[in-house]
Amino acid sequence: MTAALSVGLDIGATKTLGLVLDADGGILAEVREPTKPGADGIVGSAARVFDALRDATGQSLAGTVGVGIPGLVDVERGSVKHAVNLGVDGDWLPLRDLLAARLGVPVVLENDVNAATLGAAALSGADDLVYLSIGTGLAAGLVLDGRLRRGEHGAAGEIGHVPVDPQGNVCQCGQRGCLETIASGSALAAAWPSGNVPPAQALFEAARSGDPSAVVVRDRFTRGVASAIRVLSLAVDPASIVLGGGVAQLGEPLRDAVAQALLEQAASSPFLASLDLAGRLSVVPSDYPVAAVGAAFLGR
Questions:
Q1: What CATH architecture is 6-105?
Q2: Residue 213: pLDDT above 60?
Q3: Degrees (nearest 5) of the Cα angle 211, 216, 221?
Q4: How many CA atoms lie within 13 Å of 204's alpha carbon, on the beta-carbon side?
Q5: Which CATH number fits domain 125-283: 3.20.20.10, 2.40.10.120, 1.20.1050.10, 3.30.420.40?
Q6: Rounded to two decimals, what is the model's pTM?
Q7: Measured CA distances, 149 to 153, 156, 232 (Å)
Q8: Does residue 144 have a pLDDT over 80?
Q9: Which helix (H) or strand (E) covers residue 50, if one does?
Q10: Average model confidence (pLDDT) for the chain?
């Protein structure tokens, strides 16, 4: 790989997306393949994507490849565990070394939300931001003063497991009433079953058409997202707050609804109003592969 090119892989439960960036961060090639579960399946899926990127660019792509993956990631060891949807649980999987051996290039491994946070920072040009990923779960990434904050145990930004309702549903983490049980894609799917249509899309369309039940569910969800933003912002006071993840495919309607919830929460608090959390809020463009871009920057 020339010094100007970098490769990022975003390994998800259903697909592996890879891309090649030029020196200016422009996307030269993009490939996606279904992800097969288990160690062999993950490595094989990544190899197919990487080989397709080589074919698409006509380059050897011999530099370091950045990889984002769900689960608990030990960056120093290059290992992952608790990536349950990928068939990786229990013992640490030395994925970095397995990928490096299969791809024939150096590899750096990172949690997918952290990788996406770096991509959001690159897109916005901000060096101080919170990236809130609203997908199956709810988690955040933090870039503070230009540095990614992982935390002592890799748990920085696990906002989804902050309990807010003692009478709420039991969360998969074992606590009750966590934000993730209110403000996540899985929470929306449970509250608004929608068949073949993505739950978030179906819910927001129904609410926009005036369905009162949909309005109640949507507002509870957006209040939950706003509460997550409020907690994160009061903890680290970021310059920018970026919404991402699968639910963020809604785009501006999601940003507008969450901004309105933030304004309502601040209406009775001059202190919160002075922080202008709604004014700091943006959403990742639906066609921008933020996690793969961030992974590519890791490789640099």
A1: 2-Layer Sandwich (3.30)
A2: yes
A3: 125
A4: 18
A5: 3.30.420.40
A6: 0.92
A7: 11, 7, 13
A8: yes
A9: helix 38-57
A10: 94
